[in-house]
Automatic annotation (TrEMBL):
Top-level lineage group: Bacteria
Tagged with keyword Flavoprotein: yes
Assigned keywords, A-Z: FAD, Flavoprotein, Oxidoreductase
GO molecular function: D-amino-acid oxidase activity; FAD binding
Essential cofactor(s): FAD
Gene Ontology biological process terms from the UniProt entry: D-amino acid catabolic process
Gene3D superfamilies reported for this sequence: D-Amino Acid Oxidase, subunit A, domain 2, NAD(P)-binding Rossmann-like Domain
Protein family according to the UniProt entry: Belongs to the DAMOX/DASOX family.
Catalytic activity entry: a D-alpha-amino acid + O2 + H2O = a 2-oxocarboxylate + H2O2 + NH4(+)
Name this polypeptide is given: D-amino-acid oxidase
Binding residues for D-dopa: 209, 217, 274, 300
Length: 320
């Protein structure tokens, strides 16, 4: 028996695609996902992932991020199997810098005492924020999506016209692949690499307040006895083969902040391509008589913006 055609087709099964598809399915739409990559091979699976807004010059970012944070906090309380935890931790800068406005509104916010700052850091602040174990969370979103009747097909998409022929509404969450699919020459790859190690007893996260190509962050995944160490920001690089030189540098920087990590056993190295754009593209366009809603270009903020953007997608569909 042939399956009925979907009312909405979502392209991509990273955190943006899965979150959007789940929200639409929960709102009684018949939804299918097409994804080229297996669930745990998406860029989202290589994210750290500590909630935190970026590119806040875009006035949409803070509302999207806040809506997402509140949803992640609810999930952390409601379902301990989802891979989300709210963790207390420290953000610090090597030069004098005020805390971002959004940080001052988070639970547990306070400025750092001088004796709390790691060597080489000048200012800092503490707060509680969601940390997401991405492999667990992606599987959680997928399971909730299928519980709502959603379907996923692992298949590549040749064009938006091909997708519109499958469903009257298409949501483009293709990440960096949107560069060729749309096409959108303004979308650029930014390679990122993280190292996952055994947890030597890290209780708090650490995140460097930094826009350089070598940000330092330490994110404990308490449920799995692992710690995610990061990171790297490599504009224009597109390979996804782990780079031992980068892994060594990440481990060195993190051990300088928390010496207990120096001899931690490496479990795995993950690499992903952030879909970088000057602004997130979230809008509706017409293609071959159908509706395409673009939801891509989140850069390193896919997790942080996921639920807020998904709700805007739902609003655009409801307005059709």
């Amino acid at each position: 028996m042939m399956r009925p055609k979907p009312e909405v087709l979502v392209i991509g099964a990273g955190v943006s695609g899965l979150t959007t598809a789940l929200l639409l399915a929960k709102n009684n739409l018949r939804v299918r996902i097409w994804t080229r990559d297996a669930l745990l091979r998406t860029t989202s699976c290589a994210a750290g992932a500590l909630w935190g807004p970026y590119l806040v010059s875009d006035q949409r970012v803070l509302p999207w991020a806040t809506q997402t944070r509140l949803e992640l906090e609810r999930l952390a309380v409601r379902d301990r199997s989802c891979g989300v935890r709210v963790v207390y931790g420290h953000e610090a800068a090597r030069t004098a810098a005020p805390p971002p406005g959004w940080a001052t509104e988070l639970p547990g916010f306070r400025t750092s005492r001088p004796d709390e700052l790691p060597a080489g850091f000048t200012t800092g602040w503490w707060y509680r924020a969601p940390i997401v174990d991405m492999p667990t969370y992606l599987r959680y979103l997928y399971d909730r999506f299928t519980d709502c009747g959603g379907k996923l097909d692992q298949r590549a998409v040749g064009s938006l016209a091909e997708a519109v022929a499958e469903a009257p509404v298409v949501v483009n969450c293709a990440g960096y692949d949107a560069r060729n699919l749309v096409p959108d020459a303004s979308l650029r790859p930014t390679r990122g690499q993280i190292v996952v190690v055994d947890d030597p007893g890290i209780e708090e996260f650490f995140a460097e307040h930094d826009e350089s190509e070598e940000p330092t962050y330490i994110l404990p995944q308490h449920d799995h006895g692992r710690v995610v160490l990061g990171g790297s920001v490599e504009p224009g690089r597109t390979d996804r083969v782990p780079d031992e030189r980068i892994s060594t540098a990440i481990r060195r920087r993190c051990a300088e902040v928390m010496p207990a990590l120096r001899d931690a056993r490496v479990v795995e190295v993950r690499v992903g391509l952030r879909p970088t754009r000057s602004r997130v593209r979230l809008e509706r366009t017409a293609v071959d008589g159908g509706h395409v809603i673009h939801n891509y270009g989140h850069g390193g903020g896919g997790v942080t913006l996921s639920w807020g953007c998904a709700h805007d997608v739902l609003s655009l569909i409801n307005a059709i």
